[in-house]
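Quick check before the chapter quiz. The format below is the same one you will see on the exam, so make sure you can read both the input and the output lines.
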Amino acid sequence: MKKKMISILSVLCLFLGLFATGCGKQSHDGDILVYYLNLDGTSIEEGYFHVEDANDRQGVDLYLYALAKGPEADDITKTIPDSVKVLDYHVNDYFLFLNFSSEYNDIPKEEEVLIRAAIVRTLTQIPDVMYVSFQVEGETLTDARGDAIGPMSAENFVENPDAAINTSHHTDLTLYYASKDGSTLVPEVQSVYYSSNESLEKLIVKKLIQGPKDSNLMQTIPSSTNIITVSMMDGVCYVNLDSNFLNQNQEISEEAVLYSIVDSLTELEVVKKVQLSINGDTSGKVRYIYDLSEMYERNESLIEIPVSTEEETQE
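Here is the expected output.
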């Protein structure tokens, strides 16, 4: 009887250890839920990974180990290929940054998007991880067009992710960047392809962070800025950025920074107003003057009409 009680206590301690370290979802026998690939590499499948010792690997380490080692089931396979190594990782403000070895770039694109989806859906089960950012040898992962792939959440890969993440759309976006002297805004039309899982509102903010194509213009949002969330409700676009947004180029006026975002987003008919926040906090200011707590409407007074457009109008 005494041995039986000790055994029960040991199992209970294992469960408590897993929950205490934020390891995410478990099945009834203590295994963890992991997203793997089917044998053909054409879809994502749920699988359970048996935890041998909760004290040996915990949190991110545990899930990365499970993704690389693979399931016990014969009809699904490991998510991270043997040739690919995780060089390092770090977690900062709910963002998990994964750095892979160069072999990650050798993965066929059709399979890579599935691997990426499986990794993100697995790791965002951890309470301290809301977004996952991919790097290869320290460089941000890019898509087939060379565009940087930003932080991803599980919401990017819901409902049939293996089909959805391969669906792309094309559109032209009118984005507003700062003029050479930083006092006005100049429109730049960019032709973009984007995933069906990504909203146009988020895509606009991402493109502002990436900066203009025209070297005579200046980007208004620092390139180090991470997007936490971009959401819509009742005509208001809520843009939540991390604190890197505050490291603005002082040569650009605060007004130009603010309305670069507002005017770019209100190019979309559904967006009537924009509210910014920093790490979810609206108590501060864009820089010194404009309160984050305010909702801002479109302001065209700063927009500078390109010379070529003026000449065409006169003709």
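If your answer matched, good. Helices lie at 2-20, 59-69, 109-123, 161-164, 200-210, 254-265, 307-314.
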